[in-house]
Amino acid sequence: MTFSSAKQVLDAPSGQEVAVRGWIYRARSSGAIVFAVLRDGSGIVQVTVKKGGLPDAEFEAARSASIESSVEVRGAMHEDKRAPGGKELRAASFRVVGPAQTFPITEHQSEELLLDHRHLWIRSREQNAVMKVKAAALRGAREWLEESGFTEVTPPILTTNACEGGTTLFKLKYFDRDAYLSQSAQMYLEALIFSLGRVYSVTPSFRAEKSRTPRHLTEYWHLEAEAAWADNRKNMEVQEQLVTAMVQNVLSERKEELLLLRKDIEPLRDIRPPFKRMTYSQAVDRFRTQGHEMSWGCDLGAPEERALTAEETVPLFVTNYPRECKAFYMKEDPEDPRTYACADLLAPGGFGEIIGGSERETDLRKLVSRMQAQGIAMGPYEWYLDLRRYGSVPHSGFGLGVERVVKFVCGLEHIRDAVPFPRTVSRVYP
Q1: How many CB atoms lie within 10 A of CB 242?
Q2: Quick one: 175 and 65 in the same domain?
Q3: Together in a domain, 43 and 124
């Protein structure tokens, strides 16, 4: 008999013979009957094992099988409203494939223990659901980007230059020279637009920020895009359509998982373009009218982003940040040269920044002047400056933190639960 998934056997009609294999999620015994809930990658199904309904040795194997033992079960499906999914599998055969020792994770464990046993905790239904949501979000992103003329490319993650600044780089020895783990693929994507026009990548990025917050990882997945002939306005339109595609695809494919993770999914249905827009200066004015002290020129931190979006139900763009807040490669806004033509996209409900983007500076002299003023060595960037020397065009791009989007969509308290094996300032094991 062919093995089916837990989800498939729940769809089988009552009385149909099926076979399923997976791991014991929970179990209890009352003498002559064993109730076991099996899980696999698709979901859970209740299995009932009755003494006399199968060989005695198999009944004893079912009775003694511990949590997380891997098993194979054959039998018939029957209606039972008390069982998960409204059906149960009544076993005619039960085989333990991989017996499990006493599982080290029980109910109400500390966060540190769960992190120490992350290789086991990822088996939980919550982590299973988060990973499926993440996959659906990325699938929605890729489908929308491909349909919109973007080509996926594969930039390197070993580099000799910094994109966002040298203080947060992971340095390593690359044979007989120094190299760094990439903070962003942006500059390589800029090079690729001269060949392909619109490009995107999904790569790991690394930032050595000593930030111990619920929204920072030292290694995270970065969806980045760059487009030729696009100004900052067009750049924001791409972002809002992309985020909408990601959220709507999750709603379409993973409603069941979302309901496991968050109480109310209805607000996600309201995420449609256009998103709200507010300038940095307007944000500062709002803080001041609310009685908060904030000087023009200071970057927005987590408290400010929470205050701006706590009552919002859709994402919010904050545009035109002061030049001193942002990186040297951004383009000055011609209507306000104190600021760059840039925008950060903040998730609603206080979840904070999920995208940072800007129009890129194409004036070679301005780029060189800024680099000199900031003491940035020219050598590692000569190839990047060549992009301005040989046929530059107006172009824009952005970087989306995949785990930050997942954290928002799933309603997670901490970003570490949006990645299977989180890397933070204090954790690189397992």
Answers
A1: 25
A2: no
A3: no
